[in-house]
Amino acid sequence: MAPITAASWRAPATLSPVLPRGANLAAIQERGLEIRTPEGAFRARVTSTDSAEALRPADFAILAVKSYSLVDIAPIVRRCAEQGTTVVPLLNGVETLERLAQLDVPPGAVIGGLTTISAVRVAPGVVERRSPFQIVVVGELDGLISDRVDRIAGAFRDAGVDARASDRIQVELWQKFVFLAAVAAACGLARSPIGPLRADPLGRRLLRRAIEEIVAVARARGIGLPEGEVARVMGVIDGLPPGTKPSFLVDLEAGGPTELDILSGAISRFAEEAGIATPIHDTAAGALARRD
C-alpha cells in the first residue's frame, strides 16, 4: 500500500503522513484511506503526500513496500532516519537490514520487524485485511529489549494489533522466512494454491523438502532455529485454508514483478556460500524468473 507510514506512540489513534504512489495518492487525498477487515470497514482521514520534504520527524516510520521497491523508496527512508525517526521495516525476506545499510540508511535508526497478515490493495485508496489475525513483532538487532521497541510495540497494540517486542528478532525473521519462501517456491512451481498441493503426496514432499533446504541454510549461517522447525512449519501449512495462495503466486500469475530474488533467490545465494545443495530453491529461482 503506502511506502511509509509514520505513527506516534504519544497519540496512537492518529496517523502521521502516508506516502502513497500513483493512483493511491489521488484517491487517499480525495476520499481518505478505506480499510476493510473481517470485523467491518472504516475510512481513515490521513494526510498524504508524495513529497519527502513534507515529512516531519516522527517517533517511528513503518516501511511496508514490496522488496523490489526498496531502492525507489530508499531516499525517503534515509531522510526519515536522518531526522531521528526509527525505521520499522515490515518487508519479506531476511536481507532488508543489509540492503538498507547499502542504500545509506543509518543502521542505528533501523530495528528488526516482521508482520503476519493477509492484506491486499483492492483498489486505489482501498485496502482489505483478509486474515482475522494482524501480528507485528519488533526487536533490536542486538537482542536487547529497549525503550523504543517497547513503545513501538505498545503503539501497535493501542491500534488493535497483536504486537510484541522480541529479544530474538533475527531468529523470528528466519522462522517467518522458512514458511514464506517454502510455500512461495512450492506453490509457484506447481502454480497451485496450498490445498491441492499438500493433499498430493508428491506436492507434500515438495513442500517438506523446500522447508528442509531453508532450515539447513539457516543453521549453516548460525541462525539458532529450534529443533523440530520443519515439523512446526508443516503444521502451519496444514492449518491454512485450502484456497490460500502466497502473495508470490498472486504476483506471478499477474505477470508483474515478484519477490523471487529475496525468497528462493536468496536461499540459492546463501547455499552456494555455505556449500549446501538446495535443488528445490535453485529450480524455483531459475524456472520462475522473469526474462523480458
Quick recap:
The protein is α/β, with parallel strands linked by helices and 292 residues long. The chain contains 11 helices and 10 strands.
Question: What would your notes on this structure say?
Answer:
The radius of gyration is 19 Å and the shape is globular. The protein is built from 11 helices and 10 strands. Residues 1-14 have low confidence and may be disordered. The two termini are 26 Å apart. The strands form 3 sheets. A 4-stranded mixed sheet has the order 3-2-8-7. It has 292 residues and is α/β, with parallel strands linked by helices.
- The general outline is globular
Share of residues in strands: 15-25%
Largest sheet: 4 strands, mixed
N to C succession of SSEs? EHEEEHEHEEEEHEHHHHHHH
| DSSP summary, beta strand count | 10
Termini separation: 26 Å
The unreliable regions are: 1-14
Protein structure class: alpha/beta
Mean pLDDT, to the nearest integer, reads 90
Radius of gyration: 19 Å
Tally of helical runs? 11
- Strand arrangement, major sheet: 3-2-8-7
Give helix % range. Answer: 40-55%
